[in-house]
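pinging the channel bc i need a second pair of eyes. not urgent but kinda urgent?? the chain im working w is below, pasted from the shared doc
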Amino acid sequence: MQNIRKWKSDYRVWIALLLAAIIVHSLTKGLGEFVEQTGVKSSPWIFPFLYMRYYNKLLLFFPLILIFCNAPFFDQNQLYVLARAGKRKWCAGQLLYIFTTSALYFAYIFLLSIILNLRYITFTSEWGKVINTLAKTRASLNYGIEFSAEENVIRLFSPMSAVWFTFLFSWISGVILGLITFFLNMRIRGTGSFAASCLLVFSAVAAKDTKFLPFSPISWSTLNSLHLSERDRKPAYGYVCSVYTVITIALFLIILLMVKKHNFDQELKE
């Protein structure tokens, strides 16, 4: 909670949130022209398709890496917390901050996809004509809509379930990026955000060559990277959930053990 309260004076966080808003607006601004031309409003379920394209994923995950780049979030105040609470509790609090921040970030992206397009949206529990049209035609290219609706997702998922699974997998992907940043920055400062960026770039490689998808957890943040039809060889839902669970728990425990043995003399001097 202390870390979150610091957001109001943390310009890096404000820049990240502003970048995310600009990106979401850029990806969805063509939707307004399409709605005005057809006279049919869209359903609000844009979020599951917003960053299915690999370059959109690069853009929208970058601000989250920017928020996590200074992990383990050490400052003068944290030294007092560390001294009062002890290494283990301090570390657990920092890691829970990563979990919370990733969840809040993707909730923010979901809300942005609705708020920025409120004029062109009608609230319904169905996918709606606009999303179905974007999935079955080339209308998104004709109107400059920078996100693509996937017919398989529409066929296999209800809007709410698609939003939930996209949010869940994106949340865990963000947590993994944050934990890796934390772990490596504890070893050598500055290497964590570089490694997280490399993982993000690798997701673009996996999008181009699906044989790499089983080794790219960040790719699984959107449903088009999962096994949705018999013809594709993408990771299955059970595999994705298992690997996410193992990676997250393993990183959590490794960091706790590392912090327990870490000597904070250098941080205290600084």
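so The chain has one domain: 2-269. and The first helix runs from residue 2 to 5. — does that match what u expected or am i reading it wrong
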